[in-house]
Amino acid sequence: MFDAILRSCAAVAGAILAAIVAGIAVNVVLRNLFGAPLHGLLDLVEYGLLLVTCLGAPWVLSQSAHVVVDLVTGALPDAAARVAARIVACIGCVVSLAMVWYGTTAMMASQARGSMIRTAIDVPEWWVLSVLPAAFVLIAAEFLRQILRPRLRHDAKAGL
């Protein structure tokens, strides 16, 4: 079930990225041929990039497809590498839960103040801030899963 949620988040992130690419291409054509770019596209691209990052990060972590520096753990025997992986996952989980706490606090304060982001498209600030705690809940859950079932270096995807 959790893997399905992560795959769905990754699929949505991919769709948003495709929409960004299409939107920019259309905007270039409209601006150059008609002198009329799409109003608010830059804002939508910025919000889209935030969503792509936050939706994609939990899935990338679950696939061990992120950048890993394993100079130390690569030299460890499997048992020690498993312990090190659990320690790193614990640290990641604690940091992620701290991000959930602070992100939720900032979001709730923004909502209470009624803060707005006023650009070409006006949006409540808390909408933008809500993405962070939601993403880090999923990241913390994935780190928790890695604490229970640590991956070894040969389990990760590697190479170019």
Structure write-up:
It is a single chain. The chain is an all-alpha fold and 160 residues long. The protein has one domain (2-155). The chain has five helices and two strands, in the order αααββαα. The chain has a two-stranded antiparallel sheet with strand order 1-2. A hairpin with a 5-residue loop joins β1 and β2 (123-124). α1 packs antiparallel against α2, α2 packs parallel to α5 (131-148) and α3 (78-113) runs antiparallel to α5. The longest helix has 36 residues, at 78-113. The protein is globular.
Short description:
By secondary structure, the protein is mostly helical. The protein is built from five helices and two strands; from the N terminus they run αααββαα.
Topology:
Elements: H1 2-34, H2 41-62, H3 78-113, E1 116-117, E2 123-124, H4 125-129, H5 131-148
Antiparallel strand pairs: 1-2
Helix pairs in contact: 1-2, 2-5, 3-5
Number of discrete helical segments:
5
Mean pLDDT: 91
Unreliably modeled segments: none
Name the strands of the widest sheet in spatial order.
1-2
Give the helix level as a range of percent: over 70%
Total DSSP E strands:
2
Percentage of residues in DSSP E strands = under 5%
Oligomeric form: single chain
Main sheet makeup: 2 strands, antiparallel
Keywords:
two-stranded antiparallel ribbon; 2 strands; 160 residues; 5 helices; mainly alpha; globular
